[in-house]
User: Fold this.
Amino acid sequence: MLTEELKGTIREAYGAIMERKSLTPRWGQRQMIAEIANTLARIPLPGEPAADGPPAVCVIEAGTGTGKTIAYAVAAIPMAQALGKRLVVATATIALQEQFVNKDLPDIKRHSGLDFSFTLAKGRRRYVCLSKLDRLMAQGQGETDLLPLYPDEVEAPLSAEAFPVYNAMLDALGRGQWDGDRDNWPQAVPDGVWYGVTTDHSQCSGRRCPNIGQCSFFRARDALQNADIIVTNHDLALSDLALGGGAILSPPEESIYVFDEGHHLPDKALSHFASFCRLHTTVQWLQDSAKLLGQAATSLAALHSLERALQRLPTEMEEAAAGLQQSEQVVATLFEDVDTDGARDNPQLRFEHGRVPAELQQVARSLAAQFQKLAASLGRVESLLEEALEDEFAGLDKSEIETWHINVGGMLARAEGALALWQQYAPGGEEESPPMARWITLLNSGGQFGFDLRCSPILAADILEDCLWSRAAGVIVTSATITARNSFERFILHSGAPREANFKVVASPFEYANAVFSVPVMDCDPGDARRHTAALIEQLPRILDRSEGSLVLFSSRRQMLDVHEGLSGELGDSILMQGDYSKQEILRRHREAIDGGRGSIIFGLASFAEGVDLPGDYCRHVVIAKIPFAVPDSPLEAALAEWVEASGRNAFMEISVPDAALRLVQASGRLLRTEEDRGRVTLMDRRILTRRYGRAILDSLPPFRRELGQSDP
Assistant:
């Protein structure tokens, strides 16, 4: 497949970019281009049978500064075009996705000589639903007959807040001054206001909608059909795969995927295949829905085919609500031995090895049957309403049918969500390997208590094998941090990436000798939180230069707050702390201070340890308060460690240490952002020198110059 002509096209495109942008070719970039091209050459041409051999999957760790965007673009674009496949580039965040569409791809197209088209793909929830907007404005500022999209998560807005925005949106759409994309609306829209006029897969009438010709989402989706490259984010790519593939994006079999920042892929996949049920609010939703459906029997009386199904639904909802109330009593009994007066805001009960107690398992079986019945009934009603949308009924307003179709679609999605949870609790979990993680959280909202039941796979390996690795024409996963302890084993364990795939580490071109990794002398370690916090308060004024840009990273919000309070007299006016402003505002103020010749120190948590770009003087010193081990009370982390231990392995060395090493590399990566950068990384944790696992973590770091203080063991 990789013909000389195709090799020449890739070489010429890369050379043209280097020449026209006055860039210096990088050895790592060339390596990456070759690895991707050779991997995608394993894909058979259209009409040819699949060849035996390794899959067309490539996992590349490309060190910071490699220029991986250019590398995967100039390799994958010509290969995808030659193979007749769609290239789907998925980034970890919307911000990265928009940078790729608005800056990187136009730049590559302009300078490479490659001819390709591209478009941005977003989910339905990023677009206004014209049907909902029309209804809300037609009904005025009183009660609406539309069920809210996310009643448990977002509080409904006041009419005085929402309706001026809705009126302005409708006007802008009518004038052609807005495309219906939330990101293109000139002002920030509060979630409660936006969710009133957007929709999801469950509530969308699709091609049957009377507003389909003006639908912002479907107009954007139609543009995907002709584009060579679809740019999206991980969440939408995984949502599409969870729906079977091809629901929004091109089918996996016709797609070559590039997952940029691909170390997020396993965790993102888990979130899309987890299930939950919040008992109290689900009971309330069922009761409200049963009342609403009582109105439907009158409104839809002309649709005789619906009469029997609509009569049954309120009773089925009441039965399901009664079953949930019974489950609340069982769950409350299980919490009798749980410490609910401790420091934790929302106490949790995690089931060891994912095994559900017999009394809850019995309730779960009954609820699974009830929600199965309810979902089947709602599904029949939804199908009949879909048929009615396509037919003409005298005396029945089409908009009324669509209103009920939207409502019933939302009810069906919620019933199916609850069904998935109870189906996962009903078997008990005794025969699973690896087990599912199952846990319950006691929620306290203003004195109102409720229970939130969760179930999630602990590894994404089987999920991604079923929907991605075994189906996609080709997959490229790349990131600056994929390996842990210089091995891909952690990524393979979590993602299930085929062992026959092409795994490659491409070194960063940065000169790490320009930076120092230091561990100062300390007489305590983070195991003694009080003494360690006091040591940070004592040492930070000595090691931080108030005239330069610094980033101090904490694993604990409590410690960050305590250290900030302790330093208020010495460094307080120089510190920008996460939580005081938005992340973007902190970075803006920090850059403004440095540009003005003043020093600035950012105090941040995990979100500042990744994806933050502060080159040059903006960051000359990164201080890491302690080795970033995972939060010990994470139910998923605990369930995974429990399974590894039960398998006779060492969970700490196999899970905790590689994870911490990866996070430490990511945090250290905030220092060197260009080839000219220099500075210092300081780890305020002597355990990297005194504990047996410390050497493994230390050896996973880039080759900084080291200054390792001696401390008392």
Summary: The CA atoms of residues 486 and 700 lie 6 Å apart. The mean pLDDT is 90. The first helix runs from residue 4 to 20.
